[in-house]
Amino acid sequence: MFLIVGQGNPGLQYARTKHNVGFMVLDRLASPKDYRLKGNAFVAEMAVGEEKGWLMKPATFYNATGEAVAPFARFYKIPPERILVIHDEMDLPPGRLRFKAGGGNAGNYGLESISKHLGSTAFHRLRIGIGKPPSPEEGATWVLSGFRPELLPVMERVLDAAAQLARDWVIEPPEKIQQKYNGLNFAPGAPQAQ
Fold first, then answer.
1. Does residue 16 fall inside a structural domain?
2. Chain centroid to CA 67: how far?
3. Binding region
4. CA-CA distance, 58 to 157, in Å (whole number)?
């Protein structure tokens, strides 16, 4: 049993914002009509080969993600190491994604919420680059705004790769996922890892 969590905010006004890239990836793994409300989250079932699990879009706001994740994981007896959280990352430029098994939360309040409510930082993370705002004071406005039109093709490729990473993560070891995906760079003109 596994759980793939997309971080984001519920509501149409947030649907295409940078903070909702986690939800965007999940929409590539199941149709939006497949999700149903269960507890504090919209969930859909997913299978990869013989492995069965869940996709989750928390119905809580981004910074309270743990309130949805932890009760669900406990109910279905899903250990932290079988949870993948997909989220936006200002420290990565658009076009990049980075997988990590466990570790710190780097100031991401949603990850901190999950760590606190799960009592563990051993869950896995998929960081999707959104780039830095023009100034640190504009961080909140930045994550709640959409991508510039010229970046949309780049983000489509990133989101497709992230969805494939999530499928592979279900059945492949973390080391293989890192080797396969962490070198990818979809920014225009960027050299591709071999």
1. yes
2. 16
3. 14, 61, 63
4. 24
